[in-house]
Write a structure and sequence with these properties.
This protein has no helices and 36 strands. The chain is mostly beta strands and about 450 residues long. It has a domain of about 170 residues. The chain has a four-stranded antiparallel sheet with strand order 1-36-34-33, with no helix packed on it. Strands 3-4-6-7 form a four-stranded antiparallel sheet, with no helix packed on it. The chain is globular and about 55 Å long. The relative contact order is 0.13.
């Protein structure tokens, strides 16, 4: 079997062939949904190492980013156009290729649309600031052309300076109804532990966007290093996670309460211990109609796994208190055990219409990749089904195990979305997908509904 060598999830990794690969023509999917690779990224030709998920427009086009690749090697924003017939291939277009200077470098997060069809995102580096070795990052806008054959236009809305204003945003942005953008920086701020920020659009045409810091993290008991994006509730409050900090240095879940006076006050909803309750959350939360919060932790839980070197991670729910001022309650819905069921979930979750949760794990599954000399899986797409009665555990089903060969992807760092048509899950893998340049794919699994 074809095996590969995998580095840490934060490194730029190149897989190495050590044996002859086998083509699994549907064998791995005999009991589950079918997987189709929609696009393979090719080294030196287009983007590579997609670390973020996808968004889709009403016409079914997909949009995303890659951390590397493009004309200068600093990453791209891409569009995938669906084929006219099922027999045709999807068409990839590079909407913007980052240059690594003032325009930004190395986007690790996904994108968001505004009502006018403009795209917004962040880059972890670039921007021109000198306090960070590769730049402190940017928030950017991509404006579609008036004529389809013309190029999209990139505007840097804000270049982080690496001081109190924050540095190195690793997560994407969200928009409110007034066009304000909200996000996090993994570093910077008064204590260098990261920030939550707002970017307000200019009041006059051609003006500058204005950054306001909503919260500066301080480590303990507060969180540290937010690498995930934010979530709004119906009242306009913000929710998020930090990967580190808190009393046990394993991260926190926080809420920023928006007061009538315009200030934002942080409330710590939960502090992870890093034990069976999970630890080090690395992606955004989702909320159900009862305002329960759901997410993943790459570490913690009850399993012991090779890829992470310790525990295998969890899926959790955080329930609001029954009375105002009470404590939120965390429940582990599933604790990964490694092996076929998955290991190291770093990405967030998505709901279907009946309350099932879907996500990915970076490792685990029945595929064969290697970490140093140890065999680990190449990652999974999984489903968690709620119990029929209270007190019963949720049920995990592995929908697909990535094989890590040239016909497939490996190591998904991002979550999945539901496609606009057909109930299939769409996502990216950071690696795999090419015989000589294992630089990631865009995939479809399903339909699952």
């Amino acid at each position: 079997m074809r095996r590969k060598t995998v580095g840490s999830i934060e490194a730029v990794v190149v897989f190495v062939l050590v044996a002859v690969f086998l083509i699994f023509d549907g064998i791995a999917l005999a009991a589950g949904p079918k997987e189709v690779v929609l696009d393979r990224f090719v080294l030196h030709k287009d983007g590579n190492f997609p670390a973020a998920g996808l968004i889709q427009d009403s016409a079914g086009n997909l949009y995303g980013t890659t951390r590397l690749g493009g004309a200068s090697g600093f990453g791209i924003v891409f569009e995938l156009t669906p084929p006219a017939t099922a027999a045709d291939a999807w068409t990839e277009s590079i909407l913007y290729s980052f240059q690594g200077g003032n325009d930004g470098a190395n986007p690790t997060a996904g994108l968001v649309f505004d009502p006018a069809g403009n795209l917004y995102g962040t880059t972890s580096g670039g921007g021109g600031a000198t306090k960070c070795s590769s730049g402190c990052g940017t928030a950017f806008q991509l404006v579609p052309p008036a004529v389809a054959t013309d190029s999209w236009t990139e505007n840097v809305l804000y270049a982080f300076q690496g001081g109190n204003d924050g540095a190195n945003p690793l997560a994407g942005l969200i928009l409110d109804s007034e066009g304000n953008l909200y996000g996090t920086t993994s570093a910077g701020g008064r204590f260098t532990d990261g920030t939550v920020f707002q970017l307000a659009p200019p009041t006059t045409t051609g003006g500058t966007w204005t950054e306001t810091l909503l919260h500066i993290f301080g480590g303990n008991p507060d969180g540290k290093q937010p690498v995930a994006g934010l979530l709004f509730d119906k009242q306009g409050n913000l929710y998020g996670t930090t990967a580190l900090g808190g009393g046990f240095k394993s991260g926190v879940i926080f809420k920023l309460h928006h007061t009538e006076g315009g200030t934002w006050n942080e409330l710590l909803l939960y502090t992870f211990t890093g034990a069976s309750d999970g630890g080090n959350p690395a992606d955004s939360l989702v909320m159900d109609k009862e305002e329960n919060l759901y997410g993943t932790t790459p570490l913690g839980g009850t399993g012991t796994c090779t890829f992470s070197g310790s525990t295998c991670g969890t899926v959790f729910r955080l329930a609001p208190p029954a009375t105002e001022g009470g404590a939120w309650t965390e429940t582990v819905l599933y604790s990964f055990q490694g092996g076929d069921d998955g290991d190291f979930p770093v990405a967030g979750l998505v709901f279907d219409k009946v309350g099932n949760l879907f996500g990915t794990t970076v490792a685990g599954g029945s595929g064969s990749c290697t970490l140093s000399t140890s065999t680990v899986g190449c990652g999974t797409v999984f489903q968690l089904a709620p119990p029929a009665a209270a007190g019963i555990l949720w049920t995990e089903t592995v929908l697909y195990s990535f094989l890590g060969d040239p016909n497939d992807g490996a190591q998904p760092l991002a979550g999945v979305i539901f496609g606009a048509k057909g109930g299939a899950l769409l996502g990216t893998t950071s690696l795999g997908g090419h015989r000589t340049a294992n630089t990631g794919v865009v995939f479809e699994v399903g339909p699952v509904q």
